[in-house]
């Protein structure tokens, strides 16, 4: 398989002599001989020392294909990360250069797995970072678990990551090398119960959950919690990604008069469904339309035209979150403003969540006694406590081993303030899952 050439930057490595790692004469000569052609002129011992002190971090995300909109901020974030790491990373008195090897899955799970294996076997990475939906995160995590390479991931329900990869409720974790911090069904339940109580409805929720890792995890974890809270859940049944005719599901929601609607589809499927729902009259009876997985970035909702206005969304990062980046020191507002000034595009949720992945990854590297020791690095992740731009990460708290839960709050796509150059704005409407996050606006009825 041919992989893309990585956009990688290597920071200058400096060894603090008082704490330099010992290198045997035989090992030094061997390393120097192996690297002399690649590193160019200079003393062989210096070349070998520099080669030994480079940390290679893989980063895999979808930047093209059906999920490509979720990776549209990656190039900007990678530039910020490389700038922050340009002088190297000091760990235990030693300064390491850090090389970021980034790859695009093209929204293909099989390609995600292949890219991960290539980074592991060919590029000899020390740490893997991956983000965005089970279609990316799970195959990358599985490749790392099989190869014994530490992996840190985010942006998919933790249940779909943990149980979707074979873990069993109440049983010991089968994972030694892979760790995940993200939102989960419990957070969605808390947020949705809060959001759905903000407007008077008949408390009937029409749910459209696909037959995939996300949909099945949410069906198992979220729907029962909503039922316990007194809502009537009308499930149209699992559907296959890529479905083009939703007439049967729409007819069921209309017959049951579901005034609340909730879905976790890939973006193209929701666009198809929602246009058909409007044509067949269902959207006129919907008071709260709560979408997730899609509707995360402006381009996805703007494509719906007038049908986008007042759509509800789950918000796992907003520029108003009160947490700064541990790596760059930037606040959410500073990061969003810098992105808009640099690209001319509107900020998205993925901006802060991807920065959070690098926040957690660099904190884990610093917490390990020796980041080149994969077992030591995995142990450092397993007890990691850090504050990222997305919020606190604490792997000691659970709810299960290898997982740390981050907040999700309710939001809504609305008309922007006068003078804005953008077509829509996303505002936070409830904060039950994290009271530190400010609420900016009252929820409006969709219809």
TrEMBL record:
Pfam families: Peripla_BP_6. Keywords: Signal. Residues 55-396 form the Leucine-binding protein domain. The keyword Electron transport does not apply. SUPFAM superfamilies: Periplasmic binding protein-like I. PANTHER family: LEUCINE-SPECIFIC-BINDING PROTEIN, PERIPLASMIC BINDING PROTEIN OF ABC TRANSPORTER FOR NATURAL AMINO ACIDS. Belongs to the leucine-binding protein family. This is Branched-chain amino acid transport system substrate-binding protein.
